[in-house]
Amino acid sequence: MLVLQLAHAQSAGQVLHLDSCCGVGASTVRWAQQHPEAFVVGVDKSEHRLSKHSHYQIQGVNNYHVVRADCAALWRLMVEGGWRFEQHNLWYPNPWPKKTQRQRRWYAMPALVHLVRLQRSLSVRSNGAWYLEDFAWALRWWGLEATLRPLIIKGQPMTPFELKYLATGQALWVLECAFPSKVDVMGRL
User: pLDDT tens digit string along 106-152?
Assistant: First the structure.
């Protein structure tokens, strides 16, 4: 069904956006509302979190779809299927902060080989600058230019985590990266 929705959106002239690790899908629907020219796909592996999505829906916003899937597997299938997204948001992923958990961080997983081939523009948000600095280092290894800066929220926070972190006075950060039209799977552009 998702493939049909993506194909229909493209044939209707919509650009494709991806919201990975979307949790309850609040960021997916808010991003879709802010970008009516796009079709936004929200992905999360938790059925429990996605079951709460109905509380975040906005009347009249229907240019999105949330799906339960493992991001790493879905990224691989999307790359193999030739799908390419204009924008990919990866906001407040679990940073797995313990040193023993490094291999679980997105930038340290084999899935990174698919992530770098999936989009034209990537935005990663976190309350941990260290996480984004490491992510930027991994992207630079691919020859990509990643920019890290403080995140200034204008208007409503995009995710429940963003709301929580702002309420507790934590600094928020964003890493942004633009990708060339093709990234070599051997690890260089």
Answer: 999 999 999 999 999 999 999 999 999 999 999 999 899 999 999 99
Q: Note whether residue 188 is domain-resident.
A: no
> Where does residue 168 rank: exposed (0-12), middle (13-18), buried (19+ CB within 10 A)?
exposed
- In angstroms, the CA 106 to CA 5 distance is 27
CA distances from residue 43 to 67, 128, 138, 167 in whole angstroms, order as listed: 5, 22, 23, 26
145 assigned to some structural domain: yes
For 35, 93, 131, 160, 175, the CA distances from 32, given in Å and listed in that order, are 5, 20, 27, 16, 21
Domain extent at residue 43: 2-178
For residue 19, what are the β-bridge partners? 42, 89
Rg (CA), the chain: 16
What's the Cα-to-Cα distance from 107 to each of 29, 72, 90, 149, rounded to whole Å?
Answer: 26, 11, 12, 18
Q: How many domains does the chain have?
A: 1
- Say how far apart CA 171 and CA 157 lie, in whole Å: 13
CA–CA–CA angle 73, 43, 96 (5° rounding): 75
How many angstroms separate the CA atoms of 131 and 171, rounded?
13
Query: pLDDT by residue (tens digit) across 10-54?
Result: 778 889 999 999 999 999 999 999 999 999 999 999 999 999 988
Q: Is residue 11 domain-resident?
A: yes
